[in-house]
Amino acid sequence: MMRKKRRSSVDISKDAMPTEMSMSKKSRTTGRQAKAVAKEDTSNDSVFGQFIRQSGVILKQGSTANEIAVDQVVFQKRLQQQLKKSPRYPGVLQEFITGLESHIEDPERFRNCLLPCVPCLADGDSSSFQESLLRMLLGIEMLQTLVINTLFEKLPEFMFDGAGEDGLNIPHVIVNQLKWLDRVKDSKELAGKLMQLVSVAPVEIQRDIITSLPEILEDSQHSDIARELNVLLQENTQLTVPILDALSSLNLSSTLLTEVRASVMATLSAVQLEDLPVVVKFILHSISSSDALEVVCELRGKLELELCVLPPVLQASQSRVKNKGLTGSSQDSVALVLDSIKSAVRFQKTISEAWLKAIENADAAEGHKAVDLLVLFILHSTNANHSRRGAEKVLKVKVRAGQIQEALLQRTFRGHSQVMRGYFPSILALAQTLLRCPDPCMVAFGGHMYRHSFTAFDSYCQQEVVGSLVTHVCSGVGGEVDVALELLCGLVTEKPAEMALYAVFVKGVLDYMDNLTPQQIRRLFHLLSSMAFRQHHPASHIQDDMHIVIRKQLSSTVLKYKRIGIIGAVRVVGSMGAPVGGDPQGGNLPKETYRQVTALLELVRSCSDSSSEAAALYYDELSNLVLTCTLDPLVQAWIGKSVLEDFQEDFVVDVGPEITGSFPFPVCAMYNLDEEDSQVGIAINLLPLLSDDLEHKGARVSPLCLAPFFRLLRLCEVQQRHGDLEEIDALLGCPLILTDMDVVNKSESLSRPEREFLCGLLFYTINWFREVVNAFCGQKDPEMKMKVVTRLQNITYLQSILDCHCFVSLAFENGTALSTSTVAPKKGKKESAGKKKKTPPKNSSADSSQLEELPEAEDTQQDHPEKDKETSKPAVSLVSYRPFFRELDMEVLGVLQCGLLSRSVLDSELHSKVREEVQLGPAELVFLLEDMWRKLEFKLTVSPAKRAPFLKVKRADARSVGFSHLQQTSPVDLASRCVLLLPTLCTHLENCHNHFQTLLSENQGVVDAPGLDVKEHQLLSSAYQLLLQVLHTIFSWSGFSQPEHRGLLKKALGVLAGRLKEEGAELTLEQLIRHSFEYLLNFRSTVPSLGIALGLSQLLITVAGRGGHHATYREQTATLARAFLCQEWVTTSGDREKGPKHNETLQTLLSIYLEHTDDVLKAVEEIAGEGIPELLNAAKDASSRTWPTLNRLTFLVFYKGMMGELEKAVRKIPPGEQVEVKSEKLLTWNMAVRDFHILVNLVKVFDNRSVLNVCLKYGRLFLESFLKLGMPLLDFSFKKHKEDVQSLLKTFQLSTRQLHHLCGHSKIRQDTTLTNHVPALKKSLEQFVYRVKAMLTLNHCQEAFWLGNLKNRDLKGQEILSQQSQGSDDEEEEGSLMPDEHSEDEVLAIINF
Fold first, then answer.
1. What letter does residue 1352 receive in the DSSP assignment?
2. What number of other Cβ atoms are within 10 A of residue 1223's Cβ?
3. Are 1205 and 1258 in contact (CB under 8 A)?
4. Cβ distance 881 to 812 under 8 Å?
5. pLDDT tens per residue, range 1146-1189
6. Is 338 left (phi over 0), alpha (psi -120 to 50) or beta?
7. What is the pLDDT of residues 923-963, one digit of tens each?
8. DSSP assignment, residue 1171?
């Protein structure tokens, strides 16, 4: 150990003086030549000189190093003996020191004494390297103090000299002499002198002394010197680094370390940036497991990395200076800080957990800063799995809560991009994870991570980002594909030159188009064409590949691939035909480009002529291009030049006195809205075209193209005439060549082909009217508005005809061309139509493969039991085929502003023959609201992302069918439009409320009063429910949680609040929520059905949830839900509401009540203790008097709801340590066990299979919760509350015995649905027995426990004889005085307990 210490000291000296080392080595290697040159210093004849020579050291003159002839240990021993044997001892010591002082007055000699001696042994053997003369003297205990004093007196002479010509720094060498001494005689005095020297020395020497303190002082002085350094640290921030370096090496007690760390933390905000890494490292390395969270929280609060970032201008200048090698960057210091954190979290689990907890505890967006994100990236990059998972979880929670937002991510990337580059793999992995989440907030944040990574990092990272996004696109998961394509399109817009480099990666997606939806294919080709044909940075190397793919797809005979070719070609036209320089008025498109564009359009048109479905898709895609893209005027003119003439030639005819031809039905002009005589003017030639199309397959003009062609015509007119539709306004009111609708009443006598023809005719007529409404809904002229409303009435009437007769089932059962032609050419679903067309007629259910891709027939507001009785529904509802109708544009919803009048008022106005005052009727209102609700459900409601199974081809997303136009609208735009419609929606809601209020007042509250207009009642009920559903969907939009949409939320709530309170001063969000809640609560008195009641309750919950004080509205919500549950609901026919839909609604409403009530256990006991006994005592078909919705048909709904909420409630019973809290918890568990006992014993009366299944399932869950949460409470409460615990266990034992009997009953019945629950339940029952025994043993009452055999019995209490001797099935349970099995009469007694 001694040799090791000396060697380290020498090493330190060698580091400080390379020149002297080389001299020493040279003298060793040259041997005698060095001796010949050097002259011995013989002038010193003092005691010092004599003793030194006699001990074996030869003092040299000049710059030659002193020589030593013996080993340094021998030298020290000889010198010590000479001093002790001297007759003048101890006075000789002072003489010796005086001689030393006189010797080192000469700087050269002093220098020699500080440098190592050169060994020169007599036998020629060269020993190991020797110490300096002064250091050897310091090793002699009797001289040590005197030599130290001499050195300290000598040091000030060289204090301001700095390094000499040979690079030797005398003060530094003097300090080095004191390091690693074998023993320090007076460590305390030495420490004092060192600190005195620190107080007067220059900064450089101060740093040398401070950093050397741990190597100079003994452990006994560490605490004292640490306190002095702590004081010095607060006085002089220049010495932060050496002081912390010294403190890190000192052996300190935990108390002192905490004190020092607190002082260091206090100076953190004032420390220099370049010193910050050392400070952070010291703080993190001084943490113990007990105070880790507290220290990390404080460090996180004071670590302001945002302040370390220079403004962009200074950053640029700094980077220029750095390139010249003059200075470093602030980013280097930040990187070192993060490295300190990384090393701490990697090797100390407590610190990583503390960081996660500290970030998790920050509960506001303002409380988060760049260091949070950086630390999360660090934790994710470490190899420890818990850190990786923990960082991912915390980030997801914070992003979902809106506490870590895109603005913080942007600041972090902008200020610390150089640092974050090192954590790019973690950033990429987190972005991939977030993009796969179902939550839109997390998906958006993952997208921002991708975007900023591409923008801020180098080309390697950009390539990885593009590759990862392409992987998302090829994943086949709908939401993931959409977001990835959106991000790639955004990157092409922001960074076209950079993205052009990676076009070949994106091109690879063309091989995976089979699993993409039409909208995704549209986005993909838009992305590729934007890169390939961009004017300034084209990725021209993929142009040929795109042309090859498009031509190959267009030439395919399979409609699916032809569809891809059409979409791709039209998207390429949009990019190639864009105005040069972005000037829409330009018209200066190069001739070659113009020729290529027109040639491509001609190619698409010729390839789609052979198929009416392909032609319809071509028109739809082209109209979409005209609507969404800015085209060069030359291209625009080429598209629009022949549209009007072709449309007139193909579809429009003059109405003459008679129409000649052979048709299945008599021909006449129908639905003329113009005032002229119906025998003159124009008409849509629909019936003859349909007849011709069926007779001649592949006819040039197909009725399937009517609506798409008209849409293209209308949009071209809008573009060319700046929104004026005067040239085509005659098409709004012109008639159609159809047949008399009286033939519908004779449908039973028609042949199958005739009925299919009639069905197709109705479909095409409806789609024509829908497209006409799309075109003219925005016109301001009153006459045009009247015609639009009339067309809506035509649509609802024709749809009712289809819905009320068997046309739909007949038409879609058959796989003929006619049945498929009835399907509107929905944009993006031409494949569906095409596949149906090719289905062989023998396959009567051929459409099932396509119907699987469609939304299931929803039980919407049209499905009323009363309506079912009045009209016979077809086997296939029209709801199933709704996606095949033409999509209504969002602008059509503006027709809602026409108002709502009840039928009686409308009739009275019509009697006055004021035709111009056609108003929106209930049927049209329901039609528009249904369409609006479906749009909102599709766009604003998030469905969980589902990953397709491996090697399974994923069909197109069925949910998106029928919303191809809406898919091109962002959720924000849709929400903004809906907020503008809110005043109109509120007006309709109030009209519905007033109608039912008037109805109730006129009929004295009787719903099924005689003379009631049932159809009107049904329509207005549907409108009422739809209005509530629309409002609920709007306010449920997750985007309102994001800060950037907070203003839109306040605007929406302001509309509701303004209906109740006149607008005054600007209200806060909480005030708006309160007024909106009060406004909606006013509608509770007029809800006509339980479904509408549920809709109102859900809307109120959603509105209340938009604020920060949800608890404020819980009581009102619970009171409302209870009032609805305690209300009797009857239909217009006087019957009680019933059926699966009613039961589902009732269960949801019951859950709302039990979730929002203050005391769930009391509410369950109230229903089970009052409502169910009333039901048992009532007649068979009667209901409970207190709870009218509780009857024998709905008992299962109530039973399942109560058991489920009871089990949830006991899981939420909070733990408590105080005696009062434990006592309160014991009372809570007593009530819960009593409720459970009541519910379990009900199976004796209601013993049907479903009730038993619920009891087994939730009985096991309750028992497991009791074992986990209740039994530990009983362990500690038994002594103080012995009677309460005993009563609780006895009550619970009754329940467990009944569950045991239920297990036996399930085995007898051999019902697998029931027996699946038995093994786990019996295991929990056995655990309960032994857990009670453990509790009694813990409380020294084991004598109160005894075991006995419990016989297997069925629900009636009869012993199961077949299992009497099977000991393996016997269950042991706690023995106590148990009553005999209860009869049904005794069940009532228990319930009334």
1. P
2. 15
3. no
4. yes
5. 999 999 999 989 888 899 989 988 888 888 888 877 888 889 89
6. alpha
7. 899 999 999 999 999 888 865 544 444 444 444 456 677 78
8. I
DSSP notation for 1175-1213: HHHS-TT-B-SS-TT-BTTTHHHHHHHHHHHHHHHHHTP
d(CA 345, CA 343): 6
**What tokens does 102 get?**
């006189």
How many angstroms separate the CA atoms of 989 and 925, rounded? 11
Residue 1187's Cβ-count burial label (10 Å; 0-12, 13-18, 19+) is: buried
E-assigned strand segments in 61-139 = 67-68, 118-119
The alpha carbon dihedral of 591, 596, 597, 602 has a sign of positive
User: pLDDT tens across 253-310, in order?
Assistant: 777 888 888 888 887 777 777 888 888 888 888 888 888 888 888 888 888 776 665 4
Looking from the CA of 534 toward its CB, the CA atoms found within 13 Å total 24
Residue 240 buriedness (CB in 10 A; 0-12 / 13-18 / 19+): buried
* DSSP, residue by residue, 832-843: HHHHHHTS-TT-
* Peptide bond before residue 657 is cis, with ω within 30 degrees of 0: no
The 3-state secondary structure of 546-583, one letter per residue: HHHHHHHHHCCCCHHHHHHHHHHHHHHHHHHCCCHHHC
**In 3D, which of 952, 863, 815 has the Cα closest to residue 1139?**
863
Q: Would you say 1198 and 1190 are in contact if contact means Cβ atoms under 8 Å apart? A: yes
Number of Cβ atoms within 10 Å of the Cβ of 8: 12
Which amino acid, residue 810? L
Do 824 and 612 meet the contact criterion of CB atoms below 8 Å apart?
Answer: no
Distance separating alpha carbons of residues 763 and 341, to the nearest angstrom:
69
DSSP string, 163-220: S-TTS--HHHHHHHHTTT-S--TTHHHHHHHHHHHHHHS-HHHHHHHHHHHHHHS-GG
**Which pLDDT tens digit goes with each residue over 1237-1265?**
899 888 888 878 888 888 889 888 988 88
Question: In angstroms, rounded to a whole number, what is the distance separating the alpha carbons of residues 593 and 107?
Answer: 89
Q: Which residues pair with 737 in a beta bridge?
A: 669
Distances from the Cα of 2 to the Cα of 8, 127, 181, 185, 1307, angstroms: 10, 16, 9, 17, 83
Instruction: Provide the 3-class DSSP secondary structure of residue 1350.
Output: strand
Name the average pLDDT for the chain.
Answer: 77
Which range in 566-570, 729-733, 872-876, 1062-1066 is most confidently predicted, on average pLDDT? 566-570
Report the distance separating Cα 63 and Cα 22, nearest Å.
Answer: 13
Collapsed DSSP state (helix, strand, coil) of residue 1128? coil
Q: Which two tokens stand for residue 307?
A: 């302040």
What tokens does 617 get? 């898709």
Give whole-number Cα distances, 1347 to 160, 603, 1298, 1322, in Å. 92, 90, 18, 16
Compute the distance between CA of residue 342 and CA of residue 565 in angstroms, rounded to an integer.
Answer: 52
- Nearest alpha carbon to residue 119 among 52, 71, 173: 71
Q: How far is CA 1163 from CA 426, 671, 1090, 1200, in A?
A: 50, 59, 20, 14
CA distance 1030 to 977: 13
Distance (Å, whole) CA 714 – CA 729: 10
pLDDT confidence of 1098, banded at 50, 70, 90? Answer: very high
Please give the DSSP secondary-structure letter assigned to residue 310.
Answer: P
Edge-to-edge order in the sheet of strand 668-670: 652-654, 682-684, 736-738, 668-670
Predicted confidence at residue 292, as pLDDT, reads 83
Structure tokens at 986: 């509120």
- Structure token digits, residue 1091: 């479904």
Give the pLDDT band (50/70/90) at residue 868. very low
Per-residue pLDDT at 306: 65
Of 399-403, 703-707, 914-918, the one with minimum mean pLDDT is 914-918
The C-alpha R_g of the chain, in whole angstroms, comes to 45
Whether residue 580 contacts residue 535, with contact meaning beta carbons closer than 8 Å, is answered with yes
